[in-house]
Amino acid sequence: MKKTLVFLSLIVSALILTSCNSNDPKKIDLKSEDDKTFYAMGYMLGGNLQRLTLTDAELAALYKGIAMSSKNEKSEVDMAKYQSRIQEVFKARMDKVASKEKESGKAFIEKFVKDESATKTESGLAYKVVKEGTGATPAAEDVVEVHYHGTLTDGTVFDSSKERGKTISFPLNRVIKGWTEGLQTMKEGGVTKFVIPADLAYGEAGAPPKIPGGATLVFEVELFKVTKAADANKPAPAAKTTKKK
Q1: Beta bridge partner(s), residue 149
Q2: Cα pseudo-dihedral 31, 34, 35, 36, rounded to 10
Q3: Alpha-carbon span 23 to 15, nearest angstrom
Q4: pLDDT in tens, 22-62
Q5: What does each C-alpha distance from 160 to 115, 149, 150, 163 come to in angstroms?
């Protein structure tokens, strides 16, 4: 409950400047740098509201509550009663969005397997080898160095080491389940496209604001290097010293 309230308070706090002084926030001119800064804050935090699929009437009610509270005016509703409803409504909306995302993702995976002649594992992970590797295959405990490009099923990029231009290394058992399972099908030098259902990714909670709850994720991964766990845990060799004569 506390996390939900903190999350919502961050959003509404960022919206105060754009809601208290006008019935239509879209008509507010961003004149000063402070205006633009708070707008950017509100835009960033308010992106989480997308997951609640609020109607115009619900947004108006939200704005009204912000305005009255910021002016220390008496609430028009029983706050003790409706504070307890916040979590209920929040969860119900989130569950609805996640359910819709999961159904859409299921259809996407089925199409991917059929159209791309991809492989689907018992866990629900689907993958297609783009380029076969010739080197070592990682175990779950090993450290891998990769390039990756991650998108939602609609093509929206949420993360990409390729776009940053720098590979990344990590223990394979410390990432999402779909990666841990999927990369164990690869060899060094290989490239594979993975479609990972929510249950093997970020679940119904998602990873806001970029990854909605229940989202199926698409990754293209290039595996550069596998460092065996035993080697990765070895201490670095001590520096050589030269005795002075």
Answers
A1: 160, 220
A2: 90
A3: 13
A4: 455 666 788 889 888 988 877 776 766 777 778 888 888 88
A5: 25, 4, 6, 5
Name 187's Cβ contacts closer than 8 Å, sequence gap at least 6: 132, 133, 134, 135, 136, 137, 223
Q: What local confidence, expressed as pLDDT, does residue 21 receive?
A: 44
Q: Which has the closest alpha carbon to 39: 13, 22, 15?
A: 15
pLDDT digits (tens, 9 = 90+) for 169-201: 999 999 999 999 999 999 999 999 999 999 999
Task: Single out the residue of 141, 167, 143, 146 nearest to residue 226, CA to CA.
Answer: 143
Q: Give catalytic residue positions.
A: 148, 158-159, 176, 202, 219
Q: Domains of the chain (ranges plus CATH)?
A: 2-76 (no CATH), 100-231 (3.10.50.40)
243 token code pair: 């005795």
